């Protein structure tokens, strides 16, 4: 996965493809996008914030919120190997990035 031409490193859990969607560890993708990330275990929510964007995703739910606006995930956020995984496209687009796919290298390309 590339963000503005630089590879995002996923140390503990590699990206996974489910239903043609690439899921990535939430902390790695949101921090790479410049957000502060919080995990709320009692409500099973992930919250990511920058100065201008607030994103909330809940484990097992297709709905998520960007600055209070409801959006829908194709694949819900989920826990794999003790890591919260979210669709890369939704995570990047929540912060105003464009997302592409290089089929030859099987690489998600994020710009923004």
Automatic annotation (TrEMBL):
Source organism, top-level taxon: Bacteria
Entry protein name: Copper amine oxidase N-terminal domain-containing protein
Record InterPro entries: Cu_amine_oxidase-like_N, Mao_N_sf
Organism ancestry: Bacteria, Bacillati, Bacillota, Clostridia, Candidatus Ornithomonoglobus
Domain Copper amine oxidase-like N-terminal: 3-110
Pfam families, per database record: Cu_amine_oxidN1
